Amino acid sequence: GASKLAGEGYCSAYFKTFNIQTVMLRFGNVYGPGSLHKNSIVAKFIRQALNKETLEIYGDGAQTRDFIYIDDAVNSIVCALNIEDEKQHCFNVGSGEGVSVLEVAKSLINLYKSNVHIDISGDYRLGDIRHNYADLNKSIALLKFNPKISFSEGLSRFSKWVISQEVSNDNYQKSIDEMNAFGLYKKNKVRK
């Protein structure tokens, strides 16, 4: 988050110093075809479900994120390229709705008709926020961006695409070990 904010600071400085139009897009959690090997929560849960591994959820599973399907994300970029004024803009790009992490896990288990277990660990990463979803008012008004694909529709499309792909092993535990090494991951003493 800090590095993204720093990038926006650079864009702002260029606009103010050189009067170069800047349009910044703040993406939610982008998912869809092409992102199976990324570290998004959707891709992680898909890999775990297809590899018949337990889906481990940080916290209590009620934390929410804004998920945006790749087609909508690409559309927001096209909209940004068509802004005609010479001003500086920053737009939120998402669905405008929060979906709980537990709902993501359950939806994928249902889509794949999997019988894998969900482990709500209570563990957490330092710095994570509880709820995050985009306020799209400015994006709708000025960017003329309005997402079209619901989370359930996007998840269904993504899941169908995944079936045609080779599913890699999940490196989840490796990421946990790395966070532990840097003191960024806290174990919950009481497991649910």
Would you give an account of this structure?
It is a single chain. The chain is of the alpha/beta class and 192 residues long. Helix content is 42%, strand content 17%. It has 7 helices and 10 strands. The strands form 5 sheets. It has a two-stranded parallel sheet with strand order 1-6. Strands 2-5 form a two-stranded parallel sheet. A two-stranded parallel sheet has the order 3-8. Helix 2 runs parallel beside helix 4. The radius of gyration is 18 Å and the shape is globular. The model has no long low-confidence stretch (mean pLDDT 87).
Listing every helix as H and every strand as E from the N terminus to the C terminus, the arrangement reads HEEHEEEHEEHEEHHHE
Number of strands: 10
Q: What's the story with the biggest beta sheet?
A: 2 strands, parallel
| Structural class category | alpha/beta
Report how far the terminal alpha carbons are from each other: 30 Å
Radius of gyration: 18 Å
Count of individual helical segments = 7
